[in-house]
Amino acid sequence: MNVLGMIPSAVILLGSGPWLGKAAFAGVFVLLLVWLLFMPARLIDEDRGTAWWRSARWWAVLICSVQIAVYLYWG
Amino acid sequence: METEVALTGADIAIMLAYLLGVVALGMWISRGIKSSKDFFLAGKSLPWWAVGMSLVVSDIGAKDMVGLAADGYRWGIVMMNYDFIGCAFPLLVAAFLFMPFLWMAGVYTIPEYLGRRYNVQVRTGFAVIWTVFMVGTLGTIFVSAAVMFQCLLGWSFWFSVGVTAVVVAVYTTVGGLKAVVVTDTVSCAVLIVGAALICILGLNRVGGFGGLHETVSSLGWTEHHFDLILPRDHPEYPWPAVLLGLGFVLGPAYWIGNQAIVQRTLGTKSQQQARASYIFCAVIKLFFPVLLVLPGLIALALLHDKLGQPTADWDKNQILPLLVARLLPTGVLGIVMGAFLAGVLSNLDSYVNSASTLVVTDLYRPLAPNRSDQHYLAVGRWLVIVFLLGGVAIAYPVKEWFGSVFEAFQNFLTLFQGPLLALLLLGMLTRFATSTGGLVGMVAGLASSILMHASGMVFGEDYDVPFLWVAWWSFVVALVTTTVVSLFTRPYDRKRLEGLVCWIPVSKEAAE
Q1: What's the confidence (pLDDT) of residue B508?
Q2: Does the residue B116 lie in any domain?
Q3: By residue range, what is the domain housing residue B87?
Q4: Which of B69, B142, B260, B331 might form a disulfide with B296, Cβ 3.0–4.6 angstroms?
Q5: When comparing pLDDT for B330 and B78, which is higher?
Q6: Does B95 sit within 8 Å of A56, measured CB to CB?
Q7: Is it the case that residue B1 has pLDDT exceeding 60?
Q8: In a domain, B69, yes or no
Q9: pLDDT in tens, B436-457
Q10: Which of B88, B452, B473 sits opposite A67 (nearest CB)?
């Protein structure tokens, strides 16, 4: 690995361990999940009464959850 | 490569039915094309589900089927990251933050947005780069098509390229974006069926997932083939580079800033439909990594005696054709070849339509303003032909210069995706980014990526920078440069930024 790869690797990998990559990838989707869950409904033009199968937020949360499971299992 | 399987009459009939069906559908759709808005944005009439499926096949085409199978053979399931962290993450962020905003801005192209937000130089700069990139991409798509046809049908390189170019030209020239999106929905379904057939028959042959794992793991050089995250000192896909370069730069730049991708979303009926199309695409994309990378692992299990361990001069593009030839019975082969054709056509029509839109909107219209709408429509149609000819012309050099067509596509992308994303993010999310800052940031980011790409050639292999790091560092250079220069130059006032920054909506007076 050359210097351009070493700098961010070193920054990210303080306290390096095999679990860190898995945690980083799953963590990105966890943060996205939190953002999706707490986003105000008015920002996405969805009423509280929107059926789950028509809710963009519901489908986005499902995709995030699948991705977290994938990275935790195969990471 | 030798042709290993002769197509039966049934195979050929399936392929021909698909080809003629697509052309007929595209021609039928073209009846409603009356204006340039109909041609370039489908009159803003596209439904979310059609756009979602079109997004999938605009991203995944023949080059991905050939390229990802080859890289799956060589590197394993790490290649699935292109569709996981590289797609799902940016698709969701774009769906809720950027796409509804771009739809509201009422632009035709991404450079058009950059021109309004920064200045005409930034607009023209990125329009020219995109144009060159799209011609290169068309070349890579033609190559992947020709490789498959050569191997399976025995067609010559130029005959394969010619046939695909003519078919796409027929319906894209007359039907515009609407024909592209409608034919893409059919292609998406055919592609899924074809890719699934390869996986199901392949897994059946190797003894299921258990048998595949056992065979591949026993080879000696495949210790990470079933790891999604590779060690940080891996020569090609160290996980920090995958996370930063692919997840945070290439993926978002592709799904937020790629004209061929964004254009169909701008053609939806409403903001909500634009968002829904991206989410539908993300749902479908959950399955595609398996469908595209698994054939590479199946090929490794079945063909490792013949193909061996990859070396520097290894012909990667032969993996999928050889697997298809070895695996599929006649009859099924026709469906899979139809899927491959679907990938070729949908990829080609998307890029050629977007290239035409981009040149007319960002390069031609500013040079020749105040012409009639019919004039711009005619120019757009002629440009479809010009771009297809450009793609045909560059196909052979692409084949000669690059070992893998997928690698070629990624190399093209990394040259400018980092700087593009930096300017888009700063432009859409901040008030302080200025016209001068954007221009200097663009130039600095592009210069840095060119330098990094060239360092291996100039200073030797020890200084080769993996393309994912090029993407990340050119993004950082453009981001920092634009920020610093903007802080020392005069920012636009709030009124000038209405509708151009996410947090500054268009005022009621302006909207009226």
Answers
A1: 60
A2: yes
A3: 62-414
A4: B69
A5: B78
A6: yes
A7: no
A8: yes
A9: 999 999 999 999 999 988 887 7
A10: B88
Question: Residue B134 is encoded by which pair of tokens?
Answer: 């799209």
Q: Check the CA dihedral B392-B393-B399-B404 and report its sign.
A: negative
Structure tokens at B369: 């303003």
Tell whether B268 is covered by a domain.
yes
Residue closest to B218 by CA, chosen among B278, B337, B103, B300: B300
* A36 Cβ under 8 Å from any chain B Cβ: yes
Percent of chain B at pLDDT above 90?
36
Residue B211 sits in the same domain as residue B119: yes
Rounded to the nearest angstrom, the minimum Cα separation between B466 and chain A is 8
- Contacts for B107 with CB less than 8 Å, ≥ 6 apart: B113, B116, B266
User: Which of B361, B382, B414 is the last residue before a domain boundary?
Assistant: B414
> Is B30 inside a domain boundary?
no
Segments in B30-154 forming alpha helices (H): 36-41, 48-59, 62-75, 89-93, 99-105, 110-117, 120-153
Is residue B448 located within the same domain as residue B459? yes
Residues B356 and B444 in one domain: no
SS3 (DSSP) at B501: strand
Question: Which pair of structure tokens corresponds to residue B26?
Answer: 């595209």
Which among A1, A45, A63 has CB closest to B272? A45
Do A5 and B238 lie within an 8 Å CB cutoff? yes
On whether both B197 and B214 belong to a single domain, the answer is yes
Q: What ipTM does this complex have?
A: 0.84
A24-33, B87-96, B169-178: least confident range: B169-178
| Boundary of a domain, candidates B346, B379, B414 | B414
Q: Chain A: give the shortest CA distance to residue B76, in Å.
A: 12
**Claim to verify: residue B406 and residue B422 sit in the same structural domain:** no
Largest CA distance in chain A: 54
Q: Are residues B219 and B114 in the same domain?
A: yes
pLDDT at A7 over 70: no
**Domain holding B397: CATH number?**
1.20.1730.10
- Residue at B125: amino acid letter: G
Q: Which of B253, B268, B296, B280 is nearest to B418 (CA)?
A: B253
pLDDT digits (tens, 9 = 90+) for B18-48: 888 888 888 888 777 888 888 888 888 899 9
Q: Do B159 and B257 belong to one domain?
A: yes
B453 and B309 both lie in a single domain: no
Q: What is the pTM of this model?
A: 0.86
A-B contacts at Cβ under 8 angstroms: 101
